Amino acid sequence: MDTYSILRQIADSWVLLALFCFFVGAGLWVFRPGARPIHDDAAQLPFRNEDAPATDSKEVRE
Question: Any stretches that span the bilayer, and where are they (predicted)?
Fold first, then answer.
């Protein structure tokens, strides 16, 4: 077998499996328990300083 065929077989099997596992792991990381405050803070970032100066993030949540 030439080098191209070997690398193609590896890419078609193991690399595809590795990329799928990475995709599933990234999805699980985003939707893990306890991540909601981080995502809520990031979602409000563009609107944070519209009317008033920025405040400490702990004061906003209370």
Answer: 14-31
Contact predicate 61/37, CB 8 Å: yes
29-54: string of b/e by CB count within 10 Å (b at 16+)? Answer: eeeeeeeeeeeeeeeeeeeeeeeeee
Are the beta carbons of 54 and 48 closer than 8 angstroms?
yes
**Alpha helices for the chain (secondary structure H):** 3-10, 16-30, 36-43, 57-61
pLDDT tens profile 9-52: 988 899 999 999 999 999 999 999 898 999 899 898 888 777 76
